[in-house]
Amino acid sequence: MNMQVSLTATGGLERRLEVAVPAERVASEVEERLKRISRTARLKGFRPGKAPFTVIRRQFGEQVHAEVVNDLMRSTYADALSQEKLTPAAGPRIEPIAMGPGTDLKYAAVFEVLPEVRVKPTGDMHIERPVAAVTEADIDAMIESMRRQRPVYTAVERAARDTDRVTVDYEGRIDGKSVKAVQGEDVRSSSAPAGIMTEMEEAVKGATPGESRTVTVRFPAEHSDKELAGQAVEVRLSIKKVEEMSLPRLIRNS
Predict the structure, then answer these.
(1) Which CATH number belongs to the domain containing residue 107 in this structure?
(2) Which of 6, 70, 176, 181 is the most exposed place for a label (fewest CB within 10 A)?
(3) Are 2 and 94 in contact (CB under 8 A)?
(4) Contact, 114 vs 87, CB < 8 A?
(5) What digits encode the pLDDT tens for the residues 116-142?
(6) Nearest to residue 20, comparing CAs of 106, 110, 109?
(7) What percent of the chain lies above the pLDDT cut of 90?
């Protein structure tokens, strides 16, 4: 009543393990479980534990057979792995072959095994150690780059320069009517919406806080907003703040 095991390498790390369990072993397990059930089963028309075995088999046979098959697959799969000295990398994919009552239980388990790692002697290995020289110029360049990534902005009361950051309110109009899609408050010129950023940056050059300016923005015909597609929008800008950019102060420890 021993199981039969067939192992096939299907490519790479994948293995296919076919297992066959004799029908006699399956039937014996089913019979034993049905007997245990018959001792305590409560069926209508019979006293507890007194129902005929044929009734017990008819009532519980299919369910018990399914449970036995499930338990046998789990236990025989573990036994087959141990017999073949296999270490799966993950759980198997079970492929039923034969599982009906009165026949041998046959199934295939497909899985990948852990790769075999062989450590070669290190005596003949040659490793080149990389060497990097960091100069004072490299350090200065990196510090300067980090300073430029963290600029400091200070409000000023003068005309805007190219390196300044300008904060504006803006409103777009078509034929004198306000366009909801082209409106904003406290918008920095460098973060204006796509489609008007270039015109806005040009319009605020030389502007001073409190000043108002107007620029015409022409939206392309293929613009995603149908209200704006192919339109010339008059954008009125209110300059709220001009900020001068400077780099963080560098403090050198002695």
Answers:
(1) 3.30.70.1050
(2) 176
(3) no
(4) yes
(5) 888 888 888 888 899 999 999 999 999
(6) 106
(7) 56
CATH of the domain at 232: 3.10.50.40
Per-residue b/e over 94-124, b at no fewer than 16 CB within 10 Å? eeeeebeeeebbbbbbebebeeeeeeeeeee
Number of domains in the chain: 2
Q: Is residue 135 part of a domain?
A: no
Domain coverage including residue 10: 4-112
| Domain-embedded: residue 191 | yes
Asked whether residue 123 is domain-assigned, the answer is: no
Decide if 141 is inside a domain: no
pLDDT tens digits, one per residue of 193-206: 555 678 888 888 89
